[in-house]
Design a protein that fits this description.
By secondary structure, the protein is α+β, with helices and mostly antiparallel strands. The chain contains 12 helices and 21 strands. The longest helix has 23 residues.
Length: 413
């Protein structure tokens, strides 16, 4: 018999368990895998970006968009950066701030899992590995959690078993099934923080890495609303587009595709370069080929691609084209519409978009409004954020909120 059972041994579940146990609750974590924090090992290329100083809640997403920023303020507070740092320090994780981005001092995700595991052991939290919860049943004021060959009895339950992202690291839809069986609605779940697929000819340039800007517009009968824009390193692959800038728009693009909305994705392959800069170099490079001239500003393969597309001749010299033709070429390079036909799958997605609707949980406690004593935390909720520690920040602080709320309810009973 436990005061609290936490289903899921990822960062949200661990944070919840630590918080509740620190307050004196008898806590168990029930984890289907053979070890804790498997997804955490993969974050930040193994360096584990925990949070950042410039957290902006509008760079998180939700399926309905209704009041989700207010929900995040209620769950994470006004100072998420400080809250994550304080929590990490309280369990023995020293951090390093690199230009506002916070990592463990060791720059190893494994050190975070290790410190969390040690804290759980110190607090006496019981961990049941390789245990898959198939059903949650209520027995008067208690819950019975049914696994394959055993059952667990507890007063309260936190469901923090993540989503389908990183399937190779144990991502599943088990949490959604448990929630659905308890009467909760699940908004459409899809991959996020992943690459975009396209049949565009630019995929012939697979392997090219270049600075670029991507802008996503929603089409309203020939009127365009800018939904999201990112600048950074673009990676062109044989399937389409990748890189952090692409990951950061993938949630919005995935939602547009899911809803069959009309939208336009525009690439600027010369961000920060305007025609005045082009003209400055044009006046001294007339004897160069157009491709050679463009290579002053951009990757040579991209230069050849656009020159061939617009001028039909990759060997033509700059002095042999009209300045207006050059303007047309530069305009295409800076305003290249690319057709996106999909997003990469769960095996490559760092997080999931969609999940338990935030309208079905209290923003003050994260307790279900449908089933008293059941809480949700982390990726299983319909919240996802861009790269830069957003998703781990939400996992830690939502787990902490759920753990605190479970304690407060236990104390009041």
């Amino acid at each position: 018999m436990y005061d609290l059972c936490v289903i899921g041994g990822g960062v949200a579940g661990i944070s919840a368990a630590i918080t509740a146990a620190q307050k004196g609750m008898k806590v168990a974590i029930i984890e289907k895998d053979k070890k804790l924090g498997r997804k955490l090992y993969a974050t930040g290329n193994g360096r584990c970006n925990l949070t950042n100083q410039y957290i902006d809640y509008e760079k998180c997403y939700n399926s309905s968009d209704k009041d989700y920023v207010d929900f995040l303020y209620s769950v994470m507070g006004d100072h998420a950066y400080e809250a994550v740092n304080d929590f990490c320090k309280s369990i023995g994780i020293l951090t390093e701030d690199i230009k506002g981005y916070v990592y463990p001092k060791s720059f190893q995700a494994s050190s975070v899992v290790w410190a969390m595991s040690d804290k759980l052991a110190e607090l006496g939290v019981k961990i049941h590995f390789k245990t898959f919860i198939k059903e949650i049943c209520r027995d008067n004021s208690l819950f019975i959690l049914k696994a394959q060959n055993e059952e667990f009895t507890c007063s309260q339950v936190i469901i923090a078993c993540g989503g389908k992202s990183y399937e190779s690291l144990g991502g599943t839809d088990s949490g959604y099934i448990l929630a659905k069986n308890l009467g909760h609605n699940i908004t459409t779940v899809r991959p996020a923080l992943c690459g975009l697929t396209t049949k565009d000819a630019i995929t012939k340039l697979s392997g090219v890495r270049t600075k670029a800007k991507i802008s996503v517009y929603k089409d309203y009968e020939c009127d365009y609303e800018l939904l999201v824009s990112e600048i950074g390193e673009l990676q062109i692959s044989d399937y389409g587009l990748s890189g952090i800038m692409i990951f950061n728009v993938s949630s919005q693009v995935g939602r547009l595709l899911e809803d069959n909305d009309d939208f336009t994705v525009t690439m600027d392959f010369l961000p920060g370069i305007d025609m005045s800069k082009i003209k400055e170099m044009y006046d001294v490079c007339g004897d160069r080929t157009v491709v050679g001239f463009l290579n002053t500003f951009m990757n040579d393969k991209l230069a050849s691609f656009f020159t061939s597309k617009i001028l039909k001749d990759t060997k033509i010299k700059l002095k042999n084209i009209d300045y207006y033709d050059l303007e047309d070429l530069i305009h295409e390079i800076k305003n290249y519409d690319i057709e996106i036909n999909g997003i990469k799958g769960y095996d490559q997605a760092q997080v999931c978009a969609g999940g338990i609707s935030i309208n079905q949980v209290s923003d003050h406690t994260l307790m279900s409004v449908k089933e008293e004593g059941v809480y949700f935390a982390g990726e299983i909720l319909d919240i996802d954020g861009i790269c830069g520690g957003y998703n781990i920040t939400f996992a830690i602080l939502s787990g902490k909120k759920a753990g605190e709320s479970a304690y407060d309810k236990n104390k009041s009973n």
